[in-house]
Amino acid sequence: IELGFRPALIITKRIGADGNNWQLIDSVRSPYNPANWVLKPDEAGQETTSSDYDTDFLSNGFKHRTSHAARNADGSEYVYMAWAEEAASGLYGSISNAR
After folding, report:
1. Pairing of β 37-39 and β 48-49
2. DSSP type of residue 70
3. CA distance 94 to 3
């Protein structure tokens, strides 16, 4: 998903399906690709990691590497929010780096 900036935090949720929770993934818990440490704020559990959550943080967006139902199932709809770590292009035309 192209965002126009390198994300620091991504929040996703599958809509229209029961049992799927909010998933937060950030560049601090997972400093290298694939990022796969996830927080689920609507569950009682702690942070968790799994290859089911593999996500690449790119210089201009992100890419989910799996087809896990909570984040990238075929034919499903999702809502996402993202906050920038660094803009894709700088003040003098410099381009941000991928991780």
Report:
1. antiparallel
2. H
3. 17
Q: pTM to 2 decimals?
A: 0.79
Write the single-letter amino acid at 62.
Answer: F
Q: Compute mean pLDDT per 10 residues along the chain, 99 residues long, and list them.
A: 90 79 90 90 81 89 87 85 75 61
Here the tokens at position 79 are: 């809502």
Residues 29/37, Cβ–Cβ less than 8 Å: yes
Which is nearest to 23 in space by CA: 60, 58, 59, 52? Answer: 52
Task: Yes or no: say if 60 and 6 are a contact pair by the CB < 8 Å rule.
Answer: yes
Instruction: State the Cα–Cα distance between residues 23 and 89, nearest whole angstrom.
Output: 28
- Beta-carbon count within 10 A of 79 CB: 10
Chain Cα centroid distance, residue 60:
12
